[in-house]
## 1
Amino acid sequence: MLPAVCRFLFVTTLGLITGLSSAAPVDKVYQQHCASCHAPTRLGGMGPALLPGNLKRLKTGEAAEVIRDGRAASQMPAFGDQLSEKQIEGLVDYIYTPLPSPPQWGQEEIEQSHQIHHQQAKLGNKPVFDADPLNLFIVVELGDHHATVLNGDTFEPIHRFETRFALHGGPKYSPSGRFVYFASRDGWISKFDMYNLKTVAEIRAGINTRNLAVSADGRYVMVGNYLPHTLVLLDAKDLTPIRIFDVEDKQGRSSRVSAVYTAPPRGSFIAALKDVKEVWEISYLDEPEPVATGYMHDYRYEEGYMDRGPFPLRRIVLDDYLDDFFFDQDYKHLIGAARNANNGQVVNLIVGRKIADIDLQGLPHLGSGISWEYEGRTVLATPNLKKGEVSIIDMQNWETIKRIKTHGPGFFMRSHKNSPYAWVDVFFGPNKDEVHIIDKATLEIVRTLKPEPGKTAAHVEFDRDGRHALLSIWDEEGYVIVYDAKTLEEVKRLPMNKPSGKYNVYNKTRYTEGTSH
Ligand code: DHE
């Protein structure tokens, strides 16, 4: 601790250097040091938005460290020699305080953010590398905000590139796998050309985004936002905005979007809402076909359930909110859960109403659910974010037939139709370095792997034919570990910077059983 007089001199000198006394109000400190990158409004610029919702993944202690020491492999400099500890603390409080009024991010702001980096017509139509374009993986590396394109046959990296800050959710491929679309928590949507290895277009569709979906015909991208309360429809060609849906119920109560997915056999996007008890279905077919999809019934027009016109909106009214959900393989049912509820709900998308409740306790992570055939019926398996168990649900009568005890709550679950095993991580708690292997025929854990003691092991994705399973060691000095999916022996380790999700082109574009859609 410095003696009082020295502290006075130190602080005064610091004030002279920075042009601010340490007693300067925090918003002045922010405007002087942070605004040029993060915007005077805190909505983000070259750097990410500094709002509580966007910073959810960063603990306040870590935020102070980033301000003090900077962030490696990014433009964020260290301010430790310019700001006092008190000023840093003040800044942390400041950026974790919500804005006095909700920020605007409408048509004009979205359009102004649009960037075309490469004219598609000027780029070639063949891969610039020698590998099976259908067996590539994208690996998202959260540590320094990069992504790697990985050859799924040789497991050699082909290309590594910078992404927007804090990607979240699965990147989504175009139907051919030629393009991949990423969403960042800050609302940036990036379109990447897998053949030319270039980011071709970007747009900021929201301030705090949940995820995106690509229509099964490849023509549209739909983005679901927490802030503002909107769904934003983009033209998949170059990300030009087509339409903004204000998400609100008939009484004008607005809602955050929990997530949006594409439902290929229905030709629609389906969105779960967090603050309104409705599921939204928006058709992207040129002429929505009532009979084939069961999507429309005339009486719905009359009762005002559904709009007419391009991208008609159908509201399915529920008796609870939905935070997380899963579809069966033919997209007839949506299985959803609210984070505060003690059950799941099954919604039949054809008749447009809830048809069953499921006994699901804790915090089931249905977004990571998978299904397979077990004793002549289809079962759904879901990890739980709060309880050390995997629930197995019979998808015919919606009964929970087994609760498999695990060594702690898990985040992600995966399998492949050619594999006898389902993999589930133990993401939380002292056993976060473990991954359980479940035999799909017996519903028993048959092996528990612990590849790097002390480091989180999480998120598995299989290669195209299910012969290998890739697992992330979720650490800045981490790896993607390639396993032989049959023998469960390690085949290869690829050093990566906090690798999170991995996404195989074939499995994703075919919506295969066992992976996320
Ligand atoms: Fe995720 C997918 C919601 C926290 C990593 N996560 C998803 C999806 C949803 C979701 C709705 C599906 C979107 C899609 O793929 O299109 N996630 C949530 C939450 O509500 C939660 C619990 C709190 C939050 O802060 O949003 C949450 N998620 C996290 C994390 O803390 C993780 C581990 C690290 C991170 O990136 O922030 C994380 N979420 C992921 C990943 C996927 C994902 C890697 C894609 C999984 C896949 O294989 O498809």
## 2
Amino acid sequence: MTQIAFIGGGNMATSIIGGLIREGAVSPDLIHVSDPGAEQRERLTRDFGIVTHESNLDAISSATVVILAVKPQMMKAVLEPLQATLNTRQPLLISVAAGISLPTLKEWSGCTAVVRAMPNTPALTGFGATGLFASEEVSLDQRNLTDTLLGATGLAMWVQTEAEIDAVTALSGSGPAYYFLLMESMIDAGIKLGLSEETARRLTLQTALGAGKMASSSDVAPDELRRRVTSPGGTTEQAIATFEGAHLRDIVKAAMDAAARRAAELS
Ligand code: NAD
């Protein structure tokens, strides 16, 4: 049986574990988590019935998959004392940490089968989007296992080159904030048009949810969905013309270029 160890039991680990338990993908007694926080460990045991450890070495001792879910700045210090064990045992290593490259992860861990995952915050709700890139030593079975593990938080997709992880970071990694910004702007504009704060907020959030559901449950592409709600001479047409006149597409492109450049600088 595959035993999975999470190093770090914070937000991202909790999202993945929650998804795995919800879907019945892995039995709770095969999930081991280490975290120095006693409260964190108690919460994980109480909520999910999984096995927790104070020591990272104890968590990985029988694991065939090790998921690194600590902050990027902690990673080197976390891996150093584990390197000898990881090097001997050679589990599949999956890192969800932003900005730490595959060669660096290999060097610090002594593992050869390494996957870099770039999830996003909606993973907390089961509607996450994750980009995955594997070292060539990762086997087909290990890829399938990674799909199951990260797929438990939503959509998981493989990319072909490590550089694409920077594009994934700029798109889905940072993407939720772009939608939140649009929501903020719509709420503010709705209030300025005379709506109460509550009405503007609730209508904005429901509209975002409805548009997301429509676009993701339909075979019709977003540009066609937009055309279908834009009648000639109508209200939506006026709004879209204003967005296009202000070069919204160029703004989105520049924003994502900036995010991708920053992701490349960090890794
Ligand atoms: P978090 O702070 O919620 O969790 C980190 C956990 O690591 C904490 O519970 C902390 O107690 C624990 N920890 C600290 N030192 C440790 C040690 N020496 N050994 C073991 N555990 C230790 O952070 P998070 O949001 O879950 O982020 C974890 C990783 O996920 C980060 O590398 C981040 O880049 C990545 N990530 C997170 C998101 C997100 O949406 N939260 C998105 C993409 C990537």
